[in-house]
Amino acid sequence: MQAIVVEQITKSYGPKGAVKALDGISFSVDKGELFGIIGPDGAGKTSLLRILATLILPDAGEAYLQDLHVVRDYKRLRSLLGYMPGRFSLYQDLSVQENLSFFAAVFGTRIEDNYELIKDIYVQLEPFKNRRAGALSGGMKQKLALCCALIHKPEVLLLDEPGTGVDPVSRKEFWDMLQRLKSWGITILVSTPNMDEAELCDRVALLHNGRILAMDTPAGIRDSYDRPLFAVRSADMYRLIQDLRHWPGAYSCYAFGEYAHLALHQSLQGFDKQADTVMAELQQYLESHHHTGIEVLRAAPGVEDCFIASTKDR
């Protein structure tokens, strides 16, 4: 069963729709699935989630959540949704407990009624239940916002960049919580600019300039990468990247952690027989450009490599 269906949604801003945030995107999310919308700032992620949360209207297209239309059925739909915006938007002058009680009351329920759903998250907040929300750390604010989004036991949970602005430990804890929430049958749609978080989703859509570049499981996205890829480094990384981009066999080259990732023009098919020869030629090329401390390794593509290749191919 499909919990979310998006059909040719378009959204523009500015005079005469000069800025197109969403350009006819379509996808569906199955019930109980953790689906990721992956893309950089300005890709259209927030516009999409705000449309699905019934907060703004699309210019064209249709969207359904739990078989309810996001425009025509918005009043009925809101009681089935949990929405966590990218910016902390709870009442900062209220305490943790007061915020939870308020949002429970808005949806006609009580904390006690759905405590089991938020228990794993709330136990971390309980020592601070009397602290004002505005005085919490970034990670604790995100956990409180998630509790408030879940307090009425929604069927669909929409999360807009929940890992932005929090430390790596809190970000990992947050994603662990999302995995546990799947056992309750909640459908989760999460947006993020962090490509590593794509690996934690059941399926992902890569969004860029308002268009979906690819959509599949993380493994399916990685398997679609069809070029040889190398991880290269030397003592002078800035100059290395510039030189690699001018190497005749280079398709693209970009910084990737402590290495530069170099993709080649040729196809991956049959490349294994040529790999050693190509690596030797690359080593010789870099030495001729006076690089030292050279290291050349075969690299397995990640979702970020696939995203970069997709944007370049467009």
Low-confidence stretches: none
Number of helices: 10
> In which order are the strands of the major sheet placed?
6-7-8-3-9-10
User: How big a fraction of the residues is strand?
Assistant: 25-35%
> What is the straight-line distance between the termini?
33 Å
Q: Radius of gyration, rounded?
A: 23 Å
Class by alpha and beta content:
alpha/beta
Number of strands: 14
Order of helices and strands: EEEHEEHEHHHEHEEEHEHEEHEH
Helix content: 25-40%
Shape verdict: elongated
Mean pLDDT over the residues: 92
The largest sheet, given as strand count, sense and whether it forms a barrel, is:
6 strands, mixed
Note down, in words, how this protein is organized.
The protein has 314 residues and is an alpha/beta fold. 32% of the residues lie in helices and 27% in strands. The protein is built from 10 helices and 14 strands. The chain has helices at residues 45-52, 74-78, 96-106, 115-125, 138-150, 168-181, 218-223, 237-245, 275-288, 303-313, and strands at 2-13, 19-30, 34-38, 60-65, 68-69, 81-84, 156-160, 187-192, 203-208, 211-216, 229-233, 250-256, 259-264, 295-298. The strands form 3 sheets. It has a 6-stranded mixed β-sheet with strand order 6-7-8-3-9-10, with helices on both faces. A 4-stranded antiparallel β-sheet has the order 2-1-4-5. A 4-stranded antiparallel β-sheet has the order 12-13-11-14, with helices on both faces. Helix 3 (96-106) runs parallel beside helix 5 and helix 4 (115-125) packs antiparallel against helix 5. It is elongated. The model has no long low-confidence stretch (mean pLDDT 92).
